[in-house]
Write a structure and sequence with these properties.
Blueprint lengths: L33 E3 L10 E3 L2 E4 L5 E4 L8 E5 L4 E8 L2 E5 L6 E5 L9
């Protein structure tokens, strides 16, 4: 699996044009502090992340709304599924299946080692 994905980075001047409806949690890879680089032309946040493409390890894993085994589930990712890593916090990773989601947290240990 390639660890590089090409996304169209917005060109030209970006500007605010008024209020934007915030998507439901677990949908787009967008938080108050960070978003997927592919969303830069639609949402204003302090930081945009270029994803590190990874894959789920040998066992399926539940993508969750927050870091923690007791957090609400978003979806189940099958073993070997593509995951775009955008942020880490301790033993948890936040990211998405792609720039249009779904997004959430999963244990870092659930990801296959780099290069696999």
């Amino acid at each position: 699996m390639s660890d590089v994905t090409q996304y169209q980075v917005p060109t030209g001047q970006l500007g605010l044009s008024g209020p934007v409806a915030r998507p439901a949690p677990g949908t787009l890879p967008l938080r108050g502090d960070i978003a997927h680089i592919a969303l830069a032309d639609r949402y204003l946040v302090p930081h945009y992340a270029v994803p590190q493409v990874r894959s789920v390890g040998e066992e399926a894993v539940t993508l969750r709304l927050n870091p923690g085994d007791d957090a609400d589930p978003v979806t189940e990712l099958a073993a070997g599924s593509r995951f775009e890593l955008l942020d880490t916090a301790g033993a948890w990773c936040w990211g998405a299946v792609g720039p249009e989601g779904p997004s959430g947290w999963l244990p870092a240990a659930a990801l296959a080692p780099l290069g696999q």
